[in-house]
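We now fix the convention by which a protein and its fold are recorded. The integers have meaning only within a learned vocabulary of local backbone shapes. A complete example follows; check for yourself that the lines match position by position.
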Amino acid sequence: MSEQEQNKTGEQGQKSLPDAHAGKEKSSKPRSGNRISKVGVLGCLLGLNAIAGVGGLGWKGYQIWRQLPTEAQLITQINDALAPSRATQETILVLKAELNDTREQYSRLVSRMDNLNRKLVRLQGSDRSDWLLAEAEYLLRLANQRLLTMRDVKSAMTLLSQADQLLITVDEYGLFPVRQALAEDIAALKAVERFDLEGTWLKINALMGRIDKLPLLPPNGFKPDQPESQAEEVLASEDTWQQHLETTALETWHAFTGQFRIRTDNHEAVTALLPPSEELYLRQNLRLMLERAQLALLQGQEKLYQTSLANAQSWLQTWFLNTGPEITAVHSQLSAWQQVTVLQDLPDISRSVVALKGYVDDLAEQRLPVTPASTQKTSEKSEPVTADSSEAGQ
């Protein structure tokens, strides 16, 4: 090959080198554009996927939110769920109340059985001292009854003394407090002012027996002292018809005027006179007044006692003849009885009864057999059951 040809080929080679570089530059430009477009597409795809995922999650959450119940529905569901538990709790409360009632009934039955056992042991182990104590207790109760109902201090004193003699016969050291209380009751009765209640009652009763003998006022008032024999003598001595007519008219006039009574004490209220046929009523009314005074005397009613005696004395002055020693003695007795104080402050004599009753009960307790501990546990009271509001809400 010649040198010219070599030079031409060299020049052509040099010319071809920049063309190759230019081609490389031209080819590199479209490759970078493709690379950018691929990244953008990939980013868009990723963004779309993210948006789709968020939208899907939102849609799913929205569906879940729509499916969730409201607050009222939740409360209703909770109440429905708690209804069986509340019913069960109420049933438990009712059963516990019934159990408490059953325990109380059982405790009462146990107490009753203990009392029956106590009485049985007392009857089985009773001796002469037990009978004496029972008799002394009866006398003490009778003394209290006499003092409270009849206000009879004397009888109450006698009964207390008899009870003390019975306690002396028993001769037990444990009866010392009982006898001390009995001595205090006797001393309290001795301090009461003595009043002969029975004597006063018997005197009033004796006066009631003499009522039928007391003279009443004449039913025809005060008549002139002209006996019938005088009129007969006049008729016998003078037989003229004029004198006979005059005598008859005079007798008729006296019979007419005898039906009236003239009173000079006009300042008092005038009471109508009773006919002679009512004599029984006059005496019976006086007897009833005295009986009422007797009843008030026994019951200690001071005002009724004084009023009854005053009414009886006024009745005597109004309807009975107030002349003679007998009626004067009756007035004196009524006046004396009105000065008597019926109502008295009576002491309380129940201390000896209480002390003796306590001694007898303690003696019976000592004789009883020992009961098992299980029977004592049943007498314990169960704790009250209360429903907690917080538990009910749950």
In short: Residues 309 and 334 are 6 Å apart (CA to CA). Residues 196-219+275-343 form one domain. The longest helix spans residues 3-67.
